[in-house]
From TrEMBL, chains A, B:
GO biological process: tyrosine biosynthetic process
Family to which this protein belongs: Belongs to the prephenate/arogenate dehydrogenase family.
Entry-linked PROSITE patterns: PDH_ADH
Domain called Prephenate/arogenate dehydrogenase: residue spans: 7-295
Species whose genome carries this gene: Lichenicola cladoniae
EC id: 1.3.1.12
Pathway assignment: Amino-acid biosynthesis; L-tyrosine biosynthesis; (4-hydroxyphenyl)pyruvate from prephenate (NAD(+) route): step 1/1
Protein name per the record: prephenate dehydrogenase
InterPro entries: 6-PGluconate_DH-like_C_sf, NAD(P)-bd_dom_sf, PDH_C, PDH_N, Preph/Arog_dehydrog, Prephen_DH
Leading EC class: oxidoreductase
Length: 295, 295
């Protein structure tokens, strides 16, 4: 057997993403010789041990990262800094610290103060997910055919960046390097704004009085339903994402609101051409997605 | 064999809905002895004949409705009045005229001037659909397990209403009577607003400059994609729906916009509790949908 990419891979936070990564690494010996896990929640630690999706579950972060050559933070974005702070002092010289957070500028900004010069920090974001969370929700093929974006920090070495790219490629992902600010703007429109709109329309519907609220549920097949799938996602994760990408997200929401107002005006004044043009764009985008097989 | 519900059922407009109804009626002899079709488009008429999904395709509306005991208008909402006006003079005394339009007050208001006292008009709306359109998109099981809402006009006979309900029940639908104004408000939130938001976010994304626009497509899996499916729907149909339910739709959009602004404020000021509360509602609604098997 050829040398695996890592000797010891440590996953911190065994939710949907962390447990999927662990499962993949256990399945594919070329990723790491040993997979170690730590989660702040004792319930999750017990469950991960039961599931047998890692070689070893550690009782503390300190114990988990000892002698690991790669540590992957898979906790909510708001928990990245404290969980990094708790383990960095115990990491081995030359080891790689990476993360999977859905926002990148905030994670870099908050982890940087705790970094050591003898460690390599490589921020990354696998763009894959479902509306479920927790260690039971993960599966080893989650990242297949999806993108993982890597947002290297300034002045970092290229070799650890290449190793993190290799890690995700071994998980079946395509990888791409990108500036963190650019990442946050792109994700604001493709992911964070759609989630915000989905949560909001569920709230608007939930506020309707008795009878109307029931009808929303009963007649959901006519469009509403498509919004509720993504609105079923984890509150802690999404609260953190919204708060940690607020500038880009609020800017995209402002653009969207302007566009919705323009549509409202066109409806009010019967501007058929404008309305049809807007609808045609939706169709075009859908067609492009189907062409590039992302639909 | 027992008596079918109708002797001759005429379907006007053989798109997704009309062709699905025709297919069902052809499959299930208890709906009608003969199924006749007419579409304004010669291409559609030729295609429907090729598909063999009706007994007979008529060359004119006049010919199609002759001797029919039930005529179903399945044209876009904006075409309901002209197509009703064109056929009503040739309908048989005592026949039922019904429609499938997604808005009900406007259809009733616009058809009423052309009605004859010896005909029965029963407005209805099968709440089922896909993002596809045209005669090839239809299928006989489209209405199964879905609701059809019937919005009887004031002073109408109960018997034709019962017959239209029976028609949709034979198509596998559950039926419910409802006031037209109530229908239009309910559909504004469950269907028309979600479509408006989906079209709008596609437009907002389409307006991004070069590189960012490509990224929207590539990273669509992270949420955006769920919005594009419903945004692929037919422009004529949706233009008509928006224009014909403008009051209720604009009111729901105003509520939604207020709610989105409240979310924006909470994100700007870091009001975690508010954000989590909103997200929790999304989850609750999703869970309710799963419970009542409409997810
Ligand atoms: N879900 C997606 O679609 C998706 C996609 C790409 C990236 N991401 C990113 O991936 C990360 C994890 O998301 P997820 O969906 O996997 O979340 P998840 O299923 O909720 O799992 C997160 C896990 O981390 C644990 N945790 C929280 N704080 C911790 C700490 N300080 N130290 C150690 N463990 C801690 C949580 O324990 P408790 O249950 O006790 O809180 C939970 O078990 C987030 O940064 C998210 O932004 C998510
Ligand atoms: N799609 C849905 O999700 C859905 C759900 C419930 C109810 N509805 C309602 O059902 C109706 C039909 O929708 P659809 O999705 O089936 O539309 P569609 O697939 O676009 O089909 C409409 C058909 O009607 C024809 N038509 C247009 N004007 C006509 C006229 N004056 N006389 C005869 N035929 C005419 C069209 O021909 P051309 O192609 O030449 O225009 C087309 O073949 C609409 O009122 C819609 O609101 C739709």
């Amino acid at each position: 057997m050829t040398q695996p990419l890592f000797e010891r891979l440590t996953v911190i936070g065994l939710g949907l993403i962390g447990s999927s990564l662990a499962r993949r690494a256990m399945q594919d010996g070329s990723i790491a010789r040993e997979v170690v896990a730590y989660d702040a929640s004792p319930t999750v630690r017990t469950r991960v041990a039961e599931l047998g999706i890692v070689h070893r579950v550690a009782d503390t972060g300190q114990e988990a990262v000892q002698d690991a050559d790669c540590v992957v933070l898979c906790v909510p974005v708001g928990a990245m800094a404290p969980s990094a702070a708790a383990i960095i002092p115990y990491m081995r010289t030359g080891a790689i610290l990476t993360d999977v957070g859905s926002t990148k500028q905030s994670v870099i900004r908050e982890i940087q103060p705790f970094l050591r010069p003898d460690l390599h920090f490589v921020p990354a974001h696998p763009i894959a997910g479902t509306e479920y969370s927790g260690p039971d929700a993960g599966f080893s093929t989650l990242f297949e055919g999806r993108w993982t974006l890597i947002t290297p920090i300034e002045g970092g070495d290229p070799e650890p960046v290449a190793k993190v790219a290799a890690l995700w490629q071994l998980c079946g992902a395509m990888t791409r390097e990108m500036d963190a600010a650019h990442h946050d703007r792109a994700l604001a429109i493709v992911s964070h704004l759609p989630h915000l709109l989905a949560f909001t329309i569920c709230g608007t519907a939930d506020d309707l009085e008795g009878e109307s609220r029931n009808e929303v549920l009963q007649f959901a097949a006519s469009g509403f339903r498509d919004f509720t799938r993504i609105a079923a996602s984890d509150p802690t994760m999404w609260r953190d994402v919204f708060l940690n990408n607020r500038e880009a997200l609020l800017e995209m929401l402002a653009r969207f609101t302007e566009d919705a107002q323009a549509m409202a005006r066109a409806i009010r004044w019967g501007d058929e051409e404008f309305i049809v043009d807007r609808i045609e764009r939706g169709r075009r985008i859908r067609r492009s997605l189907i062409e590039i097989k992302q639909a």
